[in-house]
Amino acid sequence: MLGFSVNSGLFESDSSIVANVQFQLQNGEYDRRFVHYMRYTCNSPDRCTDVANLKRVLDSLTLTENFEKEFAPLLVDVPTFNNISASECFQYMNSTNKPCAAPLDVDRCQRCLIAIDYPILTSNEICATCPGFTGDKNAIRREIVFNLNNRSQEFERVQLWCQMEGGCNSIENINKIRQASTIQFDFNKFFGSSSSDTNSLSMLLGFIIAFIQIKFH
Fold first, then answer.
1. Is the pLDDT of residue 4 over 60?
2. How far apart are CA 9 and CA 30, in angstroms?
3. What's the CA gap between 171 and 56, in Å, rounded?
4. Host domain of residue 199
5. Rounded distance between C-alpha atoms, residue 50 and residue 201, angstroms
6. In this structure, is residue 121 part of a structural domain?
7. In Å, how far are 81, 102, 104, 115, 192 from 93, measured between CA atoms?
8. Between the chain's N and C termini, which has fewer beta carbons within 10 Å?
9. How many alpha carbons lie under 13 Å from residue 48 in its C-beta half-sphere?
10. Span 121-148, mean pLDDT?
11. Cα 96 to chain center, whole Å?
């Protein structure tokens, strides 16, 4: 699935790009969903509604992943996941994020979780646990925030929900997720590009309103 949204930034001081890649298994092994998503926020409403500017955003962004090949076995649904399975999840917390603010709950937990934040100016924050609220799908998600005002990457978060035994929510698997995906924004290309021709703008409009869902049966 391709997703795209635009925010005029009326309540935000900085212009930014939030981009993520996701992979999850739904209904077991037979329904796989990929999501590539981008949210563009700018603090100049006129620019946000300019189609040529939106095309420059898309042309400057790279989103790729190889999640199906690398991680489909890791995300397989395990109906027998129980409190013993939950106790085997990797445990490490130096984060105050919501899942880590709650104690380990092996009786209600349905899957292991790990989330690592990579702030630019502070040390990494790791939340690896088995909380009582993790949703109903095994999934991978990697997200990066780019600040257009100072032309820098501001923040990165990688998350993994899984049920395989042996501590599937490991830091090693998070590192593999980062290696198997690319989220990049070319600031030089964005700020140096000129407007494109009418045909390119029409293609962009079609992209904005189109959602393509890819399913493998």
1. no
2. 40
3. 35
4. 2-72+136-209
5. 10
6. no
7. 22, 11, 11, 10, 42
8. C
9. 19
10. 87
11. 20
